[in-house]
Amino acid sequence: MTGDGYAGDVTSVEAMEILRNTAGAVLLDVRTDAEWTFVGRPDLSSLGREPVLISWQTFPGMAPNGGFVEAVRRSIQAKDVPVLVMCRSGQRSKSAAIALTEAGYGDCRNISDGFEGPKDEDGHRNTVAGWRANGLPWQQG
């Protein structure tokens, strides 16, 4: 565990390698329903599995999801597998990784470049880094 209260950061490319090579590893996408529907979500069908989709905050007000940890417990029972936590750009997912580590999950890693990555010099996402910009599999809707 890092001094930040979770197992550390990985890039989206590193996360996909962990998912490919580590039995039981889980991709947890903590964005909102609106983001999954309108922006897209990771496609892990080539690995024979699906990402776990549980919002860290609720849309539209972005209030904290008070049932987040309990929802994760229902979906991810094993607390000793890598849990790779993703949001848009790595901020919400870091908070979620810390909360899950505090709840007893031993290997929570923040996907630091997220699904859309940071903004480029023109203020646009999906161009510099992130799941989509790195050409990793995803689907819309």
UniProtKB/TrEMBL annotation:
Which controlled-vocabulary keywords does the entry list? Transferase
What positions does the domain Rhodanese occupy? 21-127
- Gene Ontology molecular function: any one: transferase activity
Keyword Iron present in the record's keywords: the answer is: no
Q: Which Pfam families match?
A: Rhodanese
InterPro entries the UniProt entry points to: Rhodanese-like_dom (IPR001763), Rhodanese-like_dom_sf (IPR036873), STR4-like (IPR044240)
Recorded superkingdom: Bacteria
Q: Does the keyword Transferase apply?
A: yes
Under which name does UniProt file this protein? Thiosulfate sulfurtransferase
Whose protein is this, by species?
Thalassobaculum litoreum DSM 18839
